[in-house]
Amino acid sequence: MVMKLALEKNSVLNEKYRVVEIIEQNPFYTTATVEHLLLNRYEILYLISKNLLEKKDIYEVFLRGVQKFVSLISNSIPDFLSFGEYNEIPFFTHKYIAGKPIQELLTQETKIPREELLSFFIELVSNLIFFQQNLINWEYLTYNDVCFSKGNLFFSHINFARYLINYRSQFNEEENNWFDKSPGLSLQEYDFDLAKNLFHLGELFYEALAGKGLVPAINKYKKSKEEREKLKKKKRDLLSPLRLNENIPETFEIIILKAIHPGSSGGYNNLNELLEDLLRIEQGKSPKPFLEIAGAEGESALISASTPSDQQEGYTIASIWGTQPVPEQEPVIRVRVRRGISFKKMLGIFLILCVVIILTYAGKYYIPLLLKKNHPPVALISTNITSCQTGEEVLLDGTKSNDPENDLLDFYWEIVSPETGQVIFSKNRTPEAGRTKVTFLTTGKYRISLKVFDGKEFSQTIYINVDVN
Amino acid sequence: MQNIFEKKLLKNIDRVTCYSAEQSGFKREVLLYRFTLFYSDPSDVIPECENEIKKWAKLEHSTIIPIIDITIEEKEIKFATRKPEGNSVDSAKGDISTIQTWSIARSLASGLLALHQAGIFLGGIKETHLFYESEKWIRFSPDVLGERLNRQVEIKKLNINVANREKEEAIKDISTWGCFIACLLMGDQSFVPLKKINLSNQKSQLDLEIAGRNPEVTKSQEEFLKSVIFSATSQDKKFTNFEQIIDTLNKEILS
């Protein structure tokens, strides 16, 4: 059980610290706001519990967690100060952060103007990336965990304390024991925390921009069972592009949707992707759209799940659309747009039903999808030859052809005979055909044409003329 | 001072000796400063020195390296600070980009504002006062506090009235801040302290062509820095405190 610690209000430790307020007691340590009597300043003190101290191996791991934090130099971590002993029990202190929680500042619009939120988000995500590079994941991230003090963004001690608890163990309710698990996070737990980080960031962005909680919005977004039943009767209503909140700019809505679907198809896989999108907005560009189908009119789509892990929610799904082959060894996720629905001439954000079947496991997911207009590809021949000799091998290079959506292209080469006007060469429908070799056996003026196909539309045909002597 | 153990003598700054030390428990290297009065010094100066350290310890600004712990004895004060990681500004100078320099400018200005608000006027910043930690953040070296303690003793010994000097020292901080930023922008290998610029000589002003040396600097930014640097001598004294400088930086120079 939790042992009571000998730390009371107004008690003095080592003649140096006076306890101002006890913040929290848990089986590992007691935290308190203390006053450093010689320096007349407040600090946050952690007094290790005897309980933890007696478990030497666990204590060692706990201490390593503290040392890891101490070794990080960052403007967003409170500075660590003293390490000492009180009645042979170790304690340590870090700087007291006098800043206000971000939640208070965001609700008072004058404190953090809306236009400054973007730079705040960028700083927040950059800091989180810094922590992750040092293998530190905050399990939860809420407004209260972040605060501003003297123009700096800080992660509060609450977060740090939570990290330390998670660093070592979890409570086993059956045995009433906090020390049953081997300390440290497994890789799976780490990935799961990463997904939670992303979700909570999406939540935080939403709250900052919309001024209210995200969960009711998600429920509305996902629609309740009753609502869905009603909508079944009006199938077309489901196709109306959905908005989370009218106050949130569309660019941010995409970021939020990608963040609250971490690891899913189209969602963020890591914080770097999120930061990249935020920086794109800063540069006046749109974030990369999440799951998108370009002009897939009325088609069901196939997604290849490339992840080996189906037990965690944070798995990754790579999307393969249209006519591309699905590798046999990979599990297949069939995405079925609701019956009778056609995407024809409708653009915007949709929820699509994703039925996941991996071996015996099946689950349903709603994935946000951005349906956008397909743009035709552009054919380009980069072969400069205008004349050649009979029997000479000529390289035709169409690999500079491109597609605005970066779809894979099929190549349609045609060489028209000068005498008959008939097609005498055609090599097509393989992406490898972008570069091909031909040999002219008779003299004359030949017209070589190329058009490319992105799976939905053809490009315009382009021509070059070659004189064969 | 629990759990802090002297390891190696690093330097002497008059009455202050600086050691590298180990803070066990945290297993990190810290700096330990021992301030010991000379025989000829008045021993009743210790409370003033204590106050100076307290002022420093209370400062909550990213440019201030925190004081970890302190012990006060009759003729000696020991205090420990975190050890700044990385290089001094001097050695990092060539690698600091224009964008980074403006970020340093803003951070350093707000740090100096925090010092001034706490009643600490340096009377001109020096190259040795500054650290460029992890190639990201500008910090005041804890040596500055060592110098301040020596200064306290001199003030006491010579019975100097510092109140009259504060305004002048604040202006020197402003001018040297401008000099420092100008040097970073011009990519000068050595910091040009204010004394090296002959302020009474108009020609020196003309020599300070920041925009000419760095095409990323605009003429208005150059004019701003010039008026900051020559605040000490110009008649109109355009900038007399760091609030004005930060305000101008935010609204006009970097907007």
Structural class of chain B: alpha+beta
Q: How big a fraction of the residues of chain B is strand?
A: 15-25%
How big a fraction of the residues of chain A is strand? 25-35%
| Sheet with the most strands: spatial strand order of chain B | 1-2-3-5-4
**Average pLDDT, all residues of chain B:** 84
Roughly how much helix do the residues of chain A carry, as a percent range?
A: 25-40%
Summary tags:
heterodimer; A: 469 residues; 6-stranded antiparallel sheet; 6-stranded mixed sheet; 10 helices; 22 strands; 27% strand; B: 255 residues; alpha+beta; 5-stranded antiparallel sheet; 9 helices; 8 strands
Task: Please provide a written account of the structure.
The complex is a heterodimer of chains A (469) and B (255). Chain A has helices at 50-54, 56-71, 102-107, 117-133, 157-168, 187-210, 214-222, 225-233, 250-259, 271-282; strands at 12-13, 17-25, 29-36, 41-48, 80-86, 89-95, 100-101, 146-149, 152-155, 292-294, 301-304, 318-319, 332-335, 348-358, 361-372, 387-388, 393-397, 410-416, 423-425, 435-439, 444-453, 462-468. By secondary structure, chain A is α+β, with helices and mostly antiparallel strands. The radius of gyration of chain A is 30 Å and the shape is elongated. In chain A, strands 1-2-3-4-6-5 form a six-stranded antiparallel beta sheet. Helix content of chain A is 26%, strand content 27%. With 255 residues, chain B is an alpha+beta fold. Chain B has nine helices and eight strands. In chain B, α3 runs antiparallel to α9. The chains are: A alpha+beta (469), B alpha+beta (255). At the A-B interface, α2, β5 and β6 of A face α1 and β4 of B.
